[in-house]
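In practice, a research group might receive sequence data for several interacting partners and want a quick structural hypothesis before committing to experiments. The following worked case mirrors that situation: the sequences arrive first, and a predicted assembly follows.
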Amino acid sequence: MQIGVLSRFCSRVRLTVVVPFLIAIGAGLVVPQEARAEAGASVSQEEANRQVLRRIDELEAELKALKGQVARAATASAEAPVTYPTLRIGGFSDVTFSGSRRGSTSGASLGQYALQLNSSLSPRWNFFGEFTAGARADAGTGAPPATGFNAEIERAILRFDQSDAFKLSFGRYHTPINWWNNAFHHGLWLQSTVGRPEMTQFGGRFIPVHFIGTLAEGEFPAKGLNLNYGIGLGNGRGAVTSRGGDAGDINNSKAYLVNLFVKPDKLYGLRLGGSYYRDRINMATGRRFDETIVAGHLLWDRETPELIAEYARAHHKELIGGNFAGEAYYVQLAYRLPGNQRKFKPYVRFENMRLSTADPVYTGTPGTKGVVSGIRYDLSELVALKAEYRNLQRVGAAPFNGVALQLSFSH
Amino acid sequence: MPRGLRILLCLATAVVVARGTLVPCRAAGATGSDIAVVVNSEVKEDNLPLAALRKVVLGDRQFWSGSQRVTLIIRAPEARERAVVLKKLYQMDDAQFRQYWIAKVFRAEIASGPKTVTSNEVATELVSSLSGAIAFVDSAQVPRSAKLKVLKVDSLMPGEKGYPLR
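A structural hypothesis for the assembly, expressed as tokens:
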């Protein structure tokens, strides 16, 4: 802000000082000329012009010096020694109006409020935090009465950046085996659509949403392919399989994951990758499973069009015998309209999640197939309005047809 | 010559001189000259392919080969330098640019977005004083300084045929 004010001041000085001065000089020339003419002086017009030009040069030099002072003042404030920790705060939230012909009541709901904190602790150490507060349907019930909102630490990551090729972090992550989960997190404003794909729903069980441990990541140029890697080791699912093992792992078999993706220089906007995840699950019932998830994604994120496709296959092998498998995919296509219609972005998404009803890990998570389509309109750079139609068929339930209108923002 | 006519002529002369002085000043910020990639002289690179430069401005490359952290400096909206960088490197409009950096920081891929400055003078002063800094400046306004240097892009300097940032 200060820099802008100083620059405008400088521009104003240029116009307000130079122009009146030149006019004054011009007017000033009249009097001496007239006086000299009357006195019979013989100063030539060329000499007068030279004087004017000399004065203009002097003024230009003064202006240049003044601009230098302005720039130095601005720079001095910008380059002031960084005092650690630095702290930057941002956030996301939304209000969604939804309705359907059956199955749920219509009305407004307050979305999660996601608070983001970024803090540099030193030139190479950074902390990233994401907290959410979500409205509870059971607020005020029970003993003691449930609070109105659930507060949750979604991510808390302390990272050391050695180089582009090696960064090491520790904390609680969104498990980096799924692109959507790590691209949009809890910031609904960032995504084109109102809701997330079924395979990566908040509180869902198909993939472990959170991972607590350590992650090494980096990038190598790889002759223009830009090969990125991530290797993680930590606690996988908790006893409640939709949650991570925040308070400690429930067994001595650590979860580990590997993900790789490329972003070729020659195809700016393309990302292609895959991941592998392995964990042992100890369920509260005492049953134990080895879980293996293989996933892949293809992304073209230039908005004209935007293409996101993901696939994941999960396999659960019970230690006393028995195998269960589930798979899910979605394909989302969106397009930022050209010219004056740039604020509009229509989209459509097809998705399918096929789960074994006999799989104990996925109890209460029905397979789902459906399509969502809608349009996003950017009311401003930081506020979006989305209207969406959903047609979903959950296993064992009547077809769901509904509409949603969502106002989302970032601050 | 009547006095009134003389005054008029002198005023006209002053205006002509004034225009001659002011037009280059105003044009300096709006010339069609190439946009130079200016970096701190401690940066080891002398040339960057366009794709590598894109990675730097996207925040995908955060370190120079000398291990300094990249400090990205971008002109504020309305500046021609910014418009060229957004069009040729980001291939985004201002709204997309802003959303891109909000998402990048939210994903914890980088601690902060670019520094925004409102003049080329401030940009070059910052580049001179911050190790690892990079800015985009009208090539006609790059000062001669031992503390900064102009990078080649695709082995081309500003003004050379085929230079991509114009």
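Before designing any experiment, note the following. Chain A has three helices and 17 strands. The CA atoms of residues 224 and 265 of chain A lie 5 Å apart.
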